[in-house]
Amino acid sequence: MMKFKLTTLFGGAAALMIAGSAQANLLTDGGFEAATDQFTHPNWTMVTNTPDPGSPTAQSARFQNSGWASFPHGVPGKGVWFRGFLGKSAAATANAKVTQAVAQAGAAGQTYTLTAKSRIAENFNINPAVDSQAILAIDFLDASMNVIGTSAIDVYDTAQTNGTLQPSLGADNSLWWFDYSVSGTAVAGTAFVQARLEMIDGLDASISGDQAALFDDLVLTVPEPASAMLALTGLFGLAGLRRRSA
Questions:
Q1: For the chain, does the N or the C end have fewer beta carbons within 10 angstroms?
Q2: Mind listing the pLDDT tens digit for each residue in 60-77?
Q3: Cα–Cα–Cα angle for 75, 169, 97, nearest 5°?
Q4: How many domains does the chain fold into?
């Protein structure tokens, strides 16, 4: 009988820990569905350039409203499209940035994780003239919105290492969306935590094939200390209940 009670006790505590560990997305509209046009979103800031002299109004990034630009692939929706092919020379590359900062008072010492769905083609960084990068990053900002710390990955390099680069010719694009993540610990003085997508030195591949760098479904989380306390409180509560019923 005691064995049954002990199993029930720890089983109940485990359930509490699982429930308490659920983490809310700190970002508003990580899927970009609220974008009002190709360059404007009420919660995200997009900064682009226009590097192609042949298309002087063509922006280097978009909130693209197309099934091929969002996850799940083929389902109507919006995603961020970095248009590296608009860079036509090493002196005039395509650059763009998409950011959202959230207030996080007392964040110092907390570890944050940013995840995203991405589909990135091998031709995105195939031109040897530059090192084109597709950055997924967490920035730690002070009260004046200055960057005081950063944790970042180049998704192209990560995909190349993992074998998850989309073949630029003949691929079933629906099979090439993968999860990527980066984690970082907030430094002293952090008042805001910022999610950042950035294209650096996008350049036309100058060969046939897809050159996509697409992002969707960003999630920024931080483990909540209250979760562990909730689980611990539940454990002691269950223990007291078992003692009274014994």
A1: N
A2: 999 999 999 999 999 999
A3: 60
A4: 1
In a domain, 50, yes or no: yes
- Sequence-separated (6 or more) residues with CB below 8 Å from residue 109: 185, 186
Ranges of the chain whose pLDDT falls below 70: 1-22, 224-246
CATH number at residue 172: 2.60.120.260
Nearest to 200 by CA among 116, 48, 85, 94: 94
Residue 23: predicted pLDDT: 83
Q: Is the peptide bond before 72 cis (omega within 30 degrees of 0)?
A: yes
Residue 142 neighbours by CB under 8 Å, 6+ apart: 148, 189, 190, 191, 192
Structural domain span for residue 229: 26-245
Residues 106 and 187 sit within 8 Å (Cβ to Cβ): no
For residue 172, the SS3 value is: coil
Q: How many CA atoms lie within 13 A of 156 on its CB side?
A: 22
The alpha-carbon radius of gyration of the chain (Å, integer) is 22
Residue 65 structure tokens: 């409203």
Determine the Cα–Cα distance for residues 39 and 44; give it in Å rounded to an integer: 10
